[in-house]
Design brief:
3-stranded antiparallel β-sheet; alpha+beta; 3 helices; globular
Amino acid sequence: MAPHLIPGLTAEAASRICMEQCRAMCCQGPLVLALQEHEVQPFREQATAIGVTAVVRWASDGRAWVRFDDHPGWRCPMLDPATNACRIYDRRPQRCRDFPDELTPGCAISGG
């Protein structure tokens, strides 16, 4: 579970708030998703399996980035634009699992 959820908030409730209240703002806009090297191939395979293209850019330190502005609607390619649900939620990258890792302005599940 993410290290900075509001105390007592369940993962299910947090997911519902993200989809319905804030509309997955952490997954869209001029943001990037950091991937560890071992996450890149599974991320690409999952994108192919759901019929989307995932543009992944490599950094010199072996990490990789998914820039949301490289994708339609400036959103994570794994975000369903109709429901704001993550289409790979059970297999999402670690960075997504760890969010929010601090009090985040505008993020209802972090108390921000």
